[in-house]
Structure of Type II secretion system F family protein:
Amino acid sequence: MTPTATGAVIGLMGGVGLCLVLWRLAARKITLTDRIGPYLRARPRTSRLLAEKRGHTPFPTLERLLTPWLNDLGGLLERLGSTSASIRRRLQLEGGRMSHDQFRMEQLLWSAVGLAVGLFGGLTLGVVRGAPLLPLLLGVVVCTVGGGAARDQMLTRAVRRRQERMRAQLPDVVELLALAVGAGEGPVGALERIVRSTRGALTDEVRHTLADARSGIPLALAFERMAARTDAPAVARFAEGVAVALERGTPLGDVLRAQAQDARESSRRELMETGGKKEMAMMVPVVFLVLPITVIFAIFPGLAVLRVGL
């Protein structure tokens, strides 16, 4: 390593360390609540059997020590990227398998991995190629921000795929539910049969709705909550239709058969729209790849004959 590169690396590390110290001193001020909080114990409002586990890692002591730092970094991510409300909504749409704090920790981990990759690549290019310092720093920043943004985009894709699976499963679930109700079973019994005989994203939502009904919530309100937990219009219409039928006393079998027909028609329309989009996408290789090659094969023999004649 040349003396210039060594000095650049030492200066970079010193500058980053100084910026971290200054940012830490100005980012968080210890308040009176923070000082007396560890010595006070809040009285639980619900049973401890229903309390959520607070530990996200197998090292609770280290987690408590790093929590203030993680909260500050989470606030920075919220200012630079998606808000907490948006993340909580997408986590709910994704199935509620992860809390907001867990997602922020994973996002920070992805940013740390991006920072490590950026530093490794920057140092390698600086030593081997002798690249300027400013583009290397810009690359490190881009890698760090890109790591957190990639985790956010992965959550969005997971939500989209889950909603698509729910829309694809909806017609079968509604028809099975209509058959169960038409055979004489009650709404709760029909939901139990659906949970036992099917698997998938929509089945998980039905299982959640059935758990709400068993806990004492009215079945109509449980279906309204199911409509609020999904972002698929077809699933929301199904849940709201069943809730209205239960509230007004409408025959549930007729409502479910109509819902099944509507789900089939909606699935058919979505399939036709997808086919139309794929058809337009298939025109790109035909026009820009297959057609020019066909024209070349058609013209080449004539050009060869003309060349021989000349």
Remarks:
- The domain at 164-267 is CATH 1.20.81 (Receptor-associated Protein).
- The two ends are 64 Å apart (CA to CA).
